[in-house]
ADP-ribosylglycohydrolase (Chitinophaga polysaccharea), 317 residues
Amino acid sequence: MQQQVTGAFYGIAIGDALGVPVEFKTRSYLSENPITTFTGYGCWNQPPGTFSDDASLTFCTAESLINGYDIHAMAQTFVQWAQHGYWGAHNEVFDIGHTTRRALQRVAAGTDPLISGGFEEFENGNGSLMRMMPIAFYLLNENDIHLRYLLVKEVSGITHQHFRSVLGCFIYVEFLRALVTGKSLPDAYIQMQRAVNAYLSNQSFNPAEIKYYERVLQQNIATLSNEWLYSSGYVVHTLESALWCLLRTGNYRDCVLTAVNLGGDTDTTAAVAGAAAGLYYGIDRLPAAWVQQVAKSGEIGQLAQRFAATINTASTQ
């Protein structure tokens, strides 16, 4: 478990940091100027190894869970990040999505986090999907899929309440849970499809909404050619692209570099893919130089140890 947790924590930070300098660059630009390692400055003018909101809010989520699940405390941890740069790579915020910013402003002003998140259709960016990885570990021993869905819904809903965002997070968490059990990538993908489709068939969710994830849930996303893949900041696109990168590559390095070089929302695609790849391959199979060079490397390792200890304690109670 420690290998997987530490791999996932460094995995998200490294993927995020690889993508930060080239966020918004096109796929054609990156095919001619591919990212192969950490670069600096670029669109956010940050030094090499700097992660953004994706990893920061993931670490805030983990930090909160160490003290037990409390949606109000978790939301306040997010506010600490937004206002004071808590868990920022350099203790400051340089990148925050519109939906996340508005939601955290509401929380800071006293809105209950159970109703703070954006619920309009246009508020379906990837801002809750990107921070979901610790939830998969937290829910490892929760055998009731409906309870897992409800908790994912609450955690996503701090910033993103629309069903489309929640479903994207739920699919990702179910996939990560399957990976933790040691399944191969294709087997974990099939297990996720079976579990999610069985659950959805027993609920009265809007079929038109579920259809947005048809390529993930009913088809094999790995068989798509990349011209049919859109690596934008839209939650459906990010989930599709991240799963595609993971299922089409054979190691962590290739997975995150493939994600970055798809262009668009480079840091989040690589963060979501990188968390899953880091979990799957484990810390020992991540490039050692990247682990050392990523911002807050020592603190990330310590957080991963504390978080894994909490998860292990919970699983033995």
